[in-house]
Amino acid sequence: MKKIYSFLALLTFSSVTCASVQDYLPEAKLQGKDVSPFNVGLGVTQQLAHVNGEWVNPYGIAYLKAGAYLNGDHTFGGQVGFRYPYYLTGKNQNGYYLGVYAGTLESRRVDNDYTSRLGGGVDLAYVWLNKDRISTFSVGIGAAEALKNTDGSTVVDTKPQLQFAYTLSFGL
User: Fold this and answer.
1) How far is CA 44 from the centre of its chain?
2) Are 106 and 144 within 8 A, CB to CB?
3) CATH 1.10.468.10 assigned to 28-171
4) Which residues are CB-neighbours of 101 under 8 A, at least 6 positions away?
5) Where does the chain have alpha helices with state H?
6) In the chain, what are the domain boundaries?
7) Are 125 and 96 in contact, with CB atoms under 8 Å apart?
8) pLDDT band for position 164 (50/70/90)?
9) Which pLDDT band, with edges at 50, 70 and 90, does 147 fall under?
């Protein structure tokens, strides 16, 4: 009989604990009725000219950028990221968004060939968002991998770098 009481107490406390986990989930701030869920457009991120796709969901904006660098032999580059609405300023979904990104951050010349550097970082963006379009200006800080040449010496070291980006997308 004592074992069943211990088991019932364990079940009771575990259900109380699981119920309070819901408080830690982020708040869904974006309303689906005022925005287009899927958007495509163009933009520039540092020296990367790209096309981008954006998915607006209740928790923020997920995006994918793919393009080529404007320097050298136009090396392929791309990024993936997510922005969470931190502070909305207008009746539309305009406001400041905090985000994270990963992918290629720049293209550098190593051994007479251009190489894309992988990395990631965080950004602060101002987003103009309505049912027809998304326009975003962001400033981020991140770090990219170190590049070495065939001799083994470091051409570019890992250090913090700023990233500026502007994109304009239209709803599908």
Assistant:
1) 15
2) yes
3) no
4) 79, 80, 81, 120, 121, 122, 123, 140, 142, 163
5) 2-20
6) 28-171
7) yes
8) very high
9) confident
